[in-house]
Amino acid sequence: MAPGTRLLAAALSVLLVALLAPAFPRTVEEPLALDRGGPGLGLALRRLGNTARVLTITAHPDDEHNGVLVRLARGLGARTALLTLTRGEGGQNAIGPELFFELGVLRTAELDAVHRHDGVEQLFGRAYEFGFSFSVEETLSRWGREETLGDVVRAVRAFRPDVVLTLPLEGAGGGQHHQASGRLAREAFRAAADPSRFPDQARVGLRPWQARKIYVGGVGGSAVGGSAAAVRVPTGVFDPLLGETWEQLGSRARAMHRCQGMRQLVAAAGPAEGVYTLLDAEPPVTGAESDILDGIDPSVAGLARLAPGARELAGELAVLQARLEAARLIRERKKAPPPRG
After folding, report:
1. What is the model's pTM?
2. Quick one: which of 79, 83, 283, 295 has the fewest CB in 10 Å?
3. Are 129 and 87 in contact (CB under 8 A)?
4. Could you tell me if residue 266 is inside a domain?
């Protein structure tokens, strides 16, 4: 190889390395204090002992009820995910100049920060938030109705939730992205269990899945219509592993939505709740409910229902359940104060 050619090759190599290298040093975020030591072990044991799954479906980052998510993921140990259909590209920015696509990147990063606190998994749809809308029809048309419904069905089939939470199907004024996401969630509740809907998803291993129940609540879980049948989810409960209430940790998580001007003050201790109304269920719910997880068996042993007839599996799961209970009992004994002599 001629000297000039070698020099050119070397220069190109240096340029390629410079282009591929990160613009800033990569850092690994340290776990939060609540995920380390004794509290972290306790929270991990909660997750090991709870097989329930809850999927919340919203239109934008910050539509979720953060106190409810903390209660589910941290307080109960249920596997919890948030499907956000857009990345909030059409929203405001209270902290910088980024708008549209750049704002979507910023709000995506803020959701990542939210979930460091609440312990929730994040899923996204492909819809673009084009700004304020007074029409569900316009929203679905610009999002691509079937494409966005397919995203919701894909998330349900992949995550396989027992319970789905979503936004109201009707509402006056603007902000109809909320209503559009609620209507898509309602349709996906049944469509995800129908093998004739979106059959291409089966080619990547996504089998049909019927969630047990779907509830609607206002943005942030506020009451919708004042229904007497509404289920009230307490979030003002003090959690000894967290050192604060679920609502308080939820407020810390919500404060990460900084570009949306979320308040930075921690919620006060005291009563708090999210309010939800049952929209659909399979099989139907016939009696009054006290919790959105009523009728859901969250135990490891309860997984035997997914393999009916497999008696040996039921026995092995029961043994595993007993070991989990023993592990939790050992931890509780270790942190108990010594007896007074």
Report:
1. 0.87
2. 283
3. yes
4. yes
